[in-house]
What we know:
There is one protein chain. The protein is of the alpha/beta class. The protein folds into two domains: 153 residues, Response regulator (Rossmann fold, 3-Layer(aba) Sandwich), CATH 3.40.50.2300; 215 residues, Aldolase class I (TIM Barrel). Helices cover 42% and strands 15% of the residues. A seven-stranded mixed beta sheet has the order 2-1-3-4-5-6-7, sandwiched between helices. Strands 8-11-12-13-14-15 form a six-stranded parallel beta sheet. Helix 9 packs parallel to helix 10 and helix 19 crosses helix 20. The protein is globular and about 70 Å long. The two termini are 44 Å apart. The model has no long low-confidence stretch (mean pLDDT 91). The site of iron/sulfur cluster has 11 residues, from loops.
Amino acid sequence: MKNKIIIFNPQSANSKHRIPNSILQIGASVHGHHDYILVDGNLEKDPLEKIINLVKSGEYGYFCSSVMPGPQLRQAIPFTKKIKEDFPEITTIWGGYFASNQYQVCMDSGVVDYIINGPGDVAFPTLIKELEKGNTTELSNIKNVIYRDATGTVQKTAKEPLLDQDALAPLPYQHLDKFYSVKNYLAKTFMGGTTLSYHSSMGCPFSCSFCGIVPIFNASWKGKSAEGMYSDIKYFKDHYGIDAIEFHDNNFFTSKKRVVEFSKLILNDNIKFWGEGRIDTINKYSDEDLILMKNAGCTMIFLGAETGNDEVLKQMNKGGTQSGQMIRDFAARMKKVGIIPEMSFVLGMPADTEEQVYKQILWDINFIKEIKEINPDTEIIIYLYSPTPTEGSDLYQQILDAGFSFPSTLEEWISPSWENFDLRKNPLTPWLKPYMIDIIKDFETVLNGKYPTVSDFRIKGYKKSLLQLASNWRYKTGFYKLPYEIKVLHKIWKYRQPEIEGFYSE
Ligand code: B12
Ligand code: SF4
């Protein structure tokens, strides 16, 4: 029977690979109902050869790939193209953030047959069921699907409200272990020797105008219960001895009740953890809650500070609830509690004039320095603003008016400049001039010299002192231009940037 399923995770990083939760959750949705194989591009020497051999066996009918923007496109696009060209009878299905947000270019490519738009827990098994019945075009009743109807028109079905996360099928870790040892995914990080990557909630209740998840979740969020999370984590502690967790949720700290309950449960397990949250949300936690979290192992929190300018925060739809003053106060609170705030800033937002764009960049650089003075442990991540198509938002209209447009073919998405766009390193936005990018990058180099990230535990002792010595005068005087001496040291010691590589290190 030609109905087995290949579920593929394209390569996303060069080393220290995380457990591939996206394909694992899709596997869970068909587990026990369909035969499926998980292929992880991060761990295969030649994943295409492996996939082609599977297809040639004649047992497989579906090639399904998770697709995030950025490096995953390098395998997802050519592999899917090759499969479609050589084996046109194989049905190709994409899911994940890139496929959902850029669905038109994917469907226009002619190599992607169906897209799961957002969560696939119900949509994916239901789509497979319909396709198995031979129904390929009357799919309007399945939520979260993008397909071509009988006339060839691309159709996007209604969105499914987020599901009760405790009611989802358990992740098939043992099935994954048949192909790749789960142990190998539990890497060493700055928090511990055996770190689990765990995803405990879907979505986010906010709608920041620059964020790629907004069109997918429309400001909704649902989390697993504290008990549900704890029982999964306990399994990993008992079976694999984990001592740290990276929570991969978009917004782990959304529910204070859940975080407090979870902190109480994990209090005596000696497990450190890291997660992403919002300053305005966590600022509502009491000191007692924060101390409980710290004692329970909360080591660092990734926070979208974005900018200290209240007007720009409003433009990002983050105004009103977050302000520059709140960011300052929060950095001070975290210092008292002993949790490291890891604040990301988005520089290079559009403005009415070139001068305004530049002025705002300089202003934010000084704001970042102020935050470092308040709490020197604050980790700073700098992104260049890369638009995501939240169609209908004022900001989206503003970027279109300024002459920005997305690639119209999949091939273009894998060109080097668009790859850098995905990494938020080169936004290709017409309002950001090269001299502005230079000052942001030079400042970032000087900042990373003066304050090397704690997530890179190779940079310590004399290396750290030398880097700081080389960077001090530039940092103090604001002369950031061409900091080659710092770049050389970074290169020699292979300085890692958490914003690109995630938080695993050697
Ligand atoms: C882990 C992770 C990574 C890992 C790699 C993951 C991997 N697969 O190997 C690393 C650290 C390498 C990474 C890198 C990047 N990431 Co990333 N990453 C995540 C993160 C935190 C978790 C993904 C995850 O496991 N989710 C859990 C699963 C269960 O949820 P899911 O992926 O949404 O899957 C569901 C559906 O999407 C769908 N689905 C997903 N895949 C598939 C496949 C098929 C076949 C089907 C049918 C359905 C389907 O069904 C699933 C179950 O319901 C997400 C944020 C998040 N919370 O999702 C960001 C996220 C996906 N990353 C993002 C980005 C932008 C990046 C980068 C490109 C840029 C950057 N600077 O961060 C870099 C690329 C750099 C690189 N070297 O690749 C963005 C994408 C936003 C957008 N604009 O589209 C996200 C949403 C973070 C954010 N809020 O900005 N990332
Ligand atoms: S709070 Fe974070 S995850 Fe949520 S919409 Fe804003 S940027 Fe995106």
